[in-house]
Design goal:
By secondary structure, this protein is α+β, with helices and mostly antiparallel strands. It contains six helices and seven strands, in the order E-E-H-E-H-E-E-H-H-E-E-H-H. Helix 1 crosses helix 3, helix 2 crosses helix 5 and helix 3 packs antiparallel against helix 4.
């Protein structure tokens, strides 16, 4: 299974990517810390989310993540898959946390329930590690891509970067 990883760390083809338990996108507020604690209390996988490597199955969602956090872009092969979840449900849990505070268990359970997703899911794959099978060179910075995305009406598929990467994907 081929997936995508956006990471602050630099790797080469054949390298193994392990989870970065320092969370480079540091949890910056109490709600996000509560979210992770609640998710870990209800988890159906052998590790906490923080101890997992997060991967995307879609170039589209990996580019959205890149526009927010930057980093290096990789095509990877995971060693296993603990779980596939819809990241949009994490936003739903954060919304519920703001309104309901302690009554968010049903929302957390929904995240871990297999086979459920939002209208337009953004899947994250949680695994132990992954092997780099391709280093994808982006010729644009996070800020540059963010501007390109804004100029394209926030439609990833309308960006030059997406078109270039998509066409390269089928030339290999």
């Amino acid at each position: 299974m081929k997936l995508y990883r956006v990471d602050k760390r630099l790797y080469n083809v054949g390298d193994e990517i392990l989870p970065d338990t320092n969370y480079t996108q540091a949890l910056n507020n109490e709600d996000k810390e509560t979210l992770e604690r609640k998710l870990d209390q209800k988890r159906c996988i052998p590790r906490t989310r923080k101890e997992c490597l997060f991967l995307f199955n879609s170039l589209y969602h990996a580019l959205i993540f890149f526009s927010k956090y930057g980093g290096y872009f990789y095509e990877v092969e995971p060693d296993n898959e603990f779980f596939r979840g819809d990241m949009n449900k994490l936003d739903n849990i954060l919304d519920a946390l703001r309104f309901y505070k302690e009554s968010i268990d049903p929302f957390v359970n929904e995240y871990w329930k297999k086979g459920t997703h939002t209208f337009s899911p953004c899947y994250e794959y949680l695994c132990n590690k992954a092997k780099v099978i391709k280093c994808i060179r982006l010729e644009i910075s996070k800020e540059g891509f963010y501007r390109e995305l804004n100029n394209a009406g926030n439609c990833v598929e309308q960006t030059r970067t997406y078109h270039k990467l998509f066409s390269e994907q089928y030339q290999d």
